[in-house]
Automatic annotation (TrEMBL):
Stretches that traverse the bilayer: 21-43, 63-87, 99-118, 124-145, 166-188, 194-212, 224-248, 254-278, 290-307, 327-346
InterPro entries: DUF318
Entry keyword annotation includes Transport: no
A Pfam family of this chain: ArsP_1
Entry keyword set: Cell membrane, Membrane, Transmembrane, Transmembrane helix
Subcellular location(s) of the protein: Cell membrane
Identification of the protein by name: Transporter
Topology versus the membrane: Multi-pass membrane protein
Keyword Transport listed: no
Main location: membrane
Length: 350
């Protein structure tokens, strides 16, 4: 590889990062970080996790397991200790694996970023499929293994009280998050969007300081900064290499393996997503790069479903927690369900 070609690749990667840092992306992603930070610090995890115990009806535990990823703001890394905790503390294998599959896929940051970069159809399909199919995974795991498990126990939790203004703050932050997109769809220019957006942010900040103590605000800002520090460097790195991949990877190879919408292309995409390790959000720019090279719509969804749920390190941990038989059953279910979901989505909306 010549020095000139290497310099060219670096410039391509930097240009991708520059395009990523465009104003319309930041107006979406920055509020999402603050929303995720608020969820992590101001919403009691214990008030959610208590629904996984034996005292909770199954329809409640499965529903909470399928949607709690939005409220817990977990990523593919942090979901494993939470899963281990609820599984070992008495949750049934059905709700526990439902939570394990759904939670990383409906992380509020992941859904917002997927919709913004890959399109609202893929963003909505990712959230809908993760919620619906996670229940299917849990029910199958329960039918296969629940009768052989030990008796479920109630899950003891502490600090279950929610702040009385948590819901109001959540709604305000959602409004801040979606306002730029709404104004853009109305045809407003960026200048007018910012002029309307700033007072909304000011109102949110003012009410936050009225509603929450200094310690709670500090906790919120601390969680937000932690997420930014943890995710942003890896995300920019992913964008950088995704930009280079567009130049380096032969289009014919991508089209041959994950182009179109065959069962084979969706299966290959699911396997590739399961074996790769995606840090939070990095799957999005990588899939964006692959779509530019010819990746099909169905395989894109298949990778979005399998990628956050599985990786080689995750598989090792899952097998250690549940045992090899249950762990491999779960892994195979995720790959197969991601494959068929991608195929159906590609057939309907390609």
């Amino acid at each position: 590889m010549t020095l000139d070609y290497l310099t060219y690749l670096i410039s391509v990667g930097l240009q991708s990062v520059q395009e990523y840092l465009a104003l319309h992306v930041l107006m979406c992603l920055v509020p999402a970080f603050f929303l995720a930070g608020a969820i992590a610090s101001l919403f009691s995890k214990e008030s959610v996790l208590k629904f996984f115990g034996a005292d909770a009806p199954k329809y409640v535990s499965y529903t909470v397991a399928a949607v709690s990823g939005c409220l817990l703001a977990v990523c593919s890394c942090t979901v494993l200790p939470l899963f281990a905790g609820i599984y070992k503390r008495g949750a049934g294998i059905g709700p526990a694996t439902t939570f394990l599959f759904s939670a990383p896929a409906i992380n509020i940051l992941a859904i917002v970023y997927t919709a913004k970069i890959l399109g609202y159809d893929l963003g909505a399909a990712r959230a809908f499929a993760a919620v619906l199919l996670s229940v299917l995974v849990g029910v199958i795991m329960s039918l296969a293994y629940e009768r052989k498990d030990t008796e479920r126990k109630p899950i003891k939790t502490f600090g279950e009280a929610e702040h009385k203004h948590s819901v109001q703050l959540f709604i305000l932050l959602i409004v801040v998050l979606i306002a730029p997109e709404l104004m853009s769809s109305w045809g407003w220019k960026y200048t007018f969007q910012i002029l309307a957006w700033i007072p909304l942010i000011g109102l949110t900040a003012y009410l936050s300081y009225r509603w929450f103590s200094k310690e709670e605000i500090n906790s919120w800002m601390g969680e937000t900064w932690f997420l930014i520090k943890q995710i942003t460097p890896l995300l920019l790195l992913g964008v950088f290499f995704a930009g280079i991949a567009v130049v380096v990877l032969p289009k014919e190879y991508v089209a041959a393996f994950v182009g179109g919408n065959s069962l084979a292309s969706n299966f290959i995409s699911s396997i590739a997503g399961a074996l790769m390790y995606f840090s939070t959000l990095t799957e999005v720019p990588i899939i964006k790069a692959l779509t530019l090279l010819g990746m099909g719509t169905g395989p894109s969804l298949a990778m979005l479903l399998a990628g956050p749920a599985l990786s080689l390190p995750n598989m090792i941990v899952i097998n250690r927690i549940m045992g090899v038989k249950k762990g491999m059953t779960y892994i195979c279910l995720v790959v197969l369900i991601a494959t068929f979901s991608g195929y159906v989505f590609g057939s309907m909306f390609a």
